[in-house]
Amino acid sequence: MRTVPVVLVAGHLGVGKSSLVNHLLRHADGVRIGVVVNDFGALGIDAMLVAGQASSVTSLAGGCLCCVTDADGLSAVLADLVAPATGLDLVVVEASGLAEPRELVRLLLASPDPHAVYGGLVSVVDARDPDLDHARLADLVVVNGLDLCPSAPAALEAVRSVAAGAVVGTSHGALDPALLVDPVRRPQPAQLTLDALLREADGEHPHVGAETVSFTSEQPLDAGRLAAFLESGPRGVVRVKGIVRLPDGGAAVPSEEVPDVWEVQTVGTAIRVRPAPGRLTTRGARLVLIGTGLDEAALCDGLSACVVGEDEAPPSEHAALALTRYRIDLATA
C-alpha cells in the first residue's frame, strides 16, 4: 500500500521556514508536494495567495497542492492529501500558528490513516541566535542564515552539541529535498513548468547536498543490536531505508506470522518496519543511510556490530521484538 511521508517544519517567525518551503517546491524535480500552511501570505508562491479560507486547496506548479487550515482541521486535510488519488509524494506542514511541534508529532504518530507516515520534524533556527530548545526536539535541524552570520561555525557547533538529530546549515532555506524524500522520475513536459521558469529567473541557491552511505551484509542482523543502533540516532543521519533479514525471523521456530525479511524505514529516531514485499529479499541486509556530514566508517562499523556471528546461539523466541515492536501493519491500520 502506498504511503506518503508527512514532514513538519517548525520555527520562529522570520527564521526562514517559508524560504525552505519555497526551495523545496522549486527544486522538487518531479516530486509532487502537498503543503499545509496557515500563515501563507509570506510564501512567495502566487497561487497560494488566493487560498484565503480554512481547508481551501490551491494547485501549484508541478502537480503540487497548497492547503490552508487550522489545527482542528489538520487531520481531515492530511487525509485528503495522502489519499492515493492525489498522487502526492510528500506533504509538508508549516507548523507556525497551527500547534506546538511536539503536539503535531504526536498527532502524526497516532494517525490511523494507513497512507500517512511520519516524515520527521524539521526545526528551522536562526544562525545568529539559534533556539536550542527547538533544536533538541528535531529529527533535522536547519541552521538558516549562514550568509548573515559572522560566526557560522560556532553557531553550527552550538546546535550540534544539543541536537539529537542531524544538523545542516543553509542560506535562504536552501535544503536539499533528497534529505526528506526520494527523487521521483516522471516524463518531462514539452515546455518548462512554472517552477522551472521561476528557477531560471531567480537563479540557483546552492544547497548542501545529501550524502548517502550504503551497507550490505551476507549474514542476518541481530534485532536487538540493530534496534539499539537505530534508536541511538546515528550522528548526521536523517533517514535509513532498506531490507534486513533476522535470523529465523527472530523466533526459535520460523512461521508465516514471523517473516524473516523486514523492510526498515527511519526518520531520525522514529522507526517503522513491516514484512518486506515478496519481490525484496536478501541473505543479510541492504541498507542506505541518508544525511549530511556522515562518518561512513563509523556508521558501517556500527552496523557491522549488528551482524550475527556464525558461533552465536540461536535467538530466543521473542528476540525480534526489539525491532518488530515498531511494526506498522497497513492492512489493518
UniProtKB/TrEMBL annotation:
SMART domains, A to Z: CobW_C
Highest taxon in the source lineage: Bacteria
SUPFAM superfamilies the record matches: Hypothetical protein YjiA, C-terminal domain, P-loop containing nucleoside triphosphate hydrolases
Nucleotide-binding found in the keyword field: yes
Alphabetized InterPro entries for the sequence: CobW-likC_sf (IPR036627), CobW-like_C (IPR011629), CobW/HypB/UreG_nucleotide-bd (IPR003495), P-loop_NTPase (IPR027417), Zinc-reg_GTPase_activator (IPR051316)
Organism for this UniProt entry: Actinomycetospora atypica
Catalytic activity of the protein: GTP + H2O = GDP + phosphate + H(+)
Protein name: CobW family GTP-binding protein
A Pfam family hit: cobW
Family of the protein in this entry: Belongs to the SIMIBI class G3E GTPase family. ZNG1 subfamily.
Domain CobW C-terminal: 210-307
UniProt KW keywords: Chaperone, Hydrolase, Nucleotide-binding
Keyword Nucleotide-binding annotated: yes
